């Protein structure tokens, strides 16, 4: 956060206040939400392992991703992937017959 504040030309405290006012969340929460959203996108690719997704979006392990992902998405990365792949398959089948 200190580096972001420096880039913005603000004190860390002032940067935190301005960022929170502008986004409605702390910089840390914003970054975590962005990582979880990116992980959700990457999990739609069945060729990627959950470990690969975790590292790619900046988590130190699959278990850390799972804990944080569950907190935000109310499901695990594996369950989310299964559901998204099932829905994608249903949509492809509907297009093929429809």
Automatic annotation (TrEMBL):
GO terms for MF: DNA-binding transcription factor activity; sequence-specific DNA binding
Entries under PROSITE patterns matching the protein: HTH_ARAC_FAMILY_1, HTH_ARAC_FAMILY_2
InterPro entries given in the database record: AraC_XylS_family_regulators, Homeodomain-like_sf, HTH_AraC, HTH_AraC-typ_CS
Signal peptide positions on this chain: none
Superkingdom as given in the UniProt entry: Bacteria
Organism per entry: Aquisphaera giovannonii
Protein name per the record: Transposon Tn10 TetD protein
A Pfam family assignment: HTH_18
SUPFAM superfamilies listed in its UniProt record: Homeodomain-like
PANTHER family (alphabetical): ARAC SUBFAMILY, HTH-TYPE TRANSCRIPTIONAL ACTIVATOR RHAS-RELATED
Keyword annotations from UniProtKB, A to Z: DNA-binding, Transcription, Transcription regulation
Residues annotated as domain HTH araC/xylS-type: 1-83
Gene designation per UniProt: tetD
């Amino acid at each position: 956060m200190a580096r972001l504040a420096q880039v913005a030309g603000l004190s860390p405290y002032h940067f935190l206040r301005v960022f929170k006012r502008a986004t409605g969340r702390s910089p840390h929460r914003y970054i975590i939400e962005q990582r979880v959203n990116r992980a959700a996108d990457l999990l739609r690719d069945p060729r990627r392992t959950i470990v690969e997704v975790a590292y790619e979006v900046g988590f130190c392990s699959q278990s850390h991703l799972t804990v944080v992902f569950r907190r935000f998405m109310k499901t695990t990365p594996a369950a989310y992937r299964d559901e998204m792949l099932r829905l994608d398959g249903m949509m492809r089948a509907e297009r093929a017959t429809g």
